[in-house]
Amino acid sequence: VDRAFPRSSRGSLKIARVLVALATLLCFVASGSHKAYVALAGMETVLTILFLLLYLLKLDTQMRWLCWTLADIINSVIAALFLLVVCLFAVIMRTNKGTLAGGVLGLVLLVLCLVDALLLCKTMNIGKARGRSAAK
């Protein structure tokens, strides 16, 4: 277990994403919102928990057959796009206060997804020199 990860900026951002996604899910479920809203919030909660566990248990270093950072970036960007569409509909339609609260929390989650994607892009090693074959 990587005990330093939850205290890092990436770890605390993942934990914040899980908490906001869970709050969004609870708002949508409690208000009886459209099933698409509930499905998106639930999917985002589960995927973020899985990535959090992946990094927390250091499974990304053990399973090297996939670039987990890139997969996390793609997940964050796609989640942000879906959240933009769905949460704007939830805020515009605002069938009740729970749907409105879920839509607003979903827009906060959208910002967290974009910040997470930017932080992950900064940690990628694309274009950096590697090993002995790099020019000196």
TrEMBL record:
Its main location: membrane. The keyword Transmembrane helix applies. GO terms for cellular component: membrane. It is found in: Membrane. The chain crosses the membrane at residues 12-31, 37-57, 69-93, 99-121. It comes from the Eukaryota. Keywords: Membrane, Transmembrane, Transmembrane helix. Coiled coil: none annotated. InterPro entries: Marvel (IPR008253), MARVEL-CKLF_proteins (IPR050578). It is a multi-pass membrane protein. Residues 5-125 form the MARVEL domain. The keyword 4Fe-4S does not apply. This is CKLF factor. It comes from Malurus elegans.
